[in-house]
Specification:
By secondary structure, the protein is α+β, with helices and mostly antiparallel strands. It has three domains: about 35 residues; about 70 residues, no CATH class; about 110 residues, START domain (Alpha-D-Glucose-1,6-Bisphosphate, Chain A, domain 4). It is built from eight helices and eight strands, in the order H-E-E-H-H-H-H-E-E-H-H-E-E-E-E-H. The protein has a six-stranded antiparallel sheet, covered by helices on one side. A two-stranded antiparallel sheet has the order 1-2. Helix 3 packs across helix 5 and helix 4 packs across helix 5. The longest helix is centred in the N-terminal third of the chain and has 40 residues. The termini are far apart. About 25% of the residues are buried.
């Protein structure tokens, strides 16, 4: 009887030992999965734009654009030549061509963060649960605009219904480009680029301004009527 219990105990211990590597392997697998998810949350952002946004707009994430432009010799190219390459060879829309160009230049140390060929720029974007025509109207109508943009010194220069708007910041005359895009039924996105700012500090200030303004706009459009 005692021998039987001893044999049983040894077998159980052996089974536990055999199971340990599987547990450790599962833990390691789980750790890798967690790191992958963390990497997604901390996605690469260049020119104020995340990898997912670049992928949706251009078909490539930042990592691919950096490699593509390296192979094309963009490190020694002028800003306008990189933008032309993106437009003509890869079919990247003009606005996104500028974003990818600036992002590449920042990543390769060719310019400071937020710096463009004509100064510094601030960008901001929001996705809202509202149709794109309603989002556009909140910008086009001066009374509606005043509810969330408050008394910002802006003047509308031109607009294309539901697609874009060009404005001018009266204090200094810096241009503000606004793009609108439908994201499906009852959902849309607005992206703002405020360019030709005189310094990185000014770009940070204007970026904070636009982030707060777009938060107010989002809250306004998503609040129950």
């Amino acid at each position: 009887m005692a021998a039987s219990r001893t044999s049983t105990g040894r077998a159980a211990a052996g089974n536990r030992a055999a199971r340990k590597p599987a547990v450790r392997a599962a833990a390691r697998t789980g750790s890798r999965g967690g790191l992958a998810r963390a990497g997604t949350r901390n996605e690469l952002r260049l020119a104020g734009v995340g990898t997912e946004a670049v992928m949706r707009a251009t078909g490539r994430p930042w990592s691919e654009w950096l490699a593509v432009l390296d192979r094309a010799g963009a490190r020694t190219m002028a800003h306008k030549d990189i933008a032309l390459l993106l437009s003509r060879k890869f079919g990247v829309p003009d606005w996104w061509g500028q974003m990818v160009t600036v992002g590449y230049e920042q990543a390769r140390g060719l310019r400071a963060a937020r710096e463009r060929s004509d100064g510094f720029a601030a960008t901001a974007s929001r996705t809202v649960h509202a149709p794109v025509d309603r989002l556009f109207d909140a910008w086009r109508d001066a009374q509606s605009r005043g509810r969330w943009l408050l008394d910002a010194p802006l003047e509308v220069r031109r607009s294309v219904d539901g697609k874009s708007m060009r404005m001018s910041w009266r204090a200094g005359g810096s241009p503000v480009e606004v793009r609108f895009q439908s994201r499906g039924p009852g959902k849309s996105q607005v992206a703002v680029e405020h360019a030709r700012l005189e310094s990185a500090a000014s770009a940070r200030t204007h970026k904070a301004f636009w982030a707060a303004a777009l938060d107010r706009l989002k809250a306004l459009l998503e609040s129950p009527r």
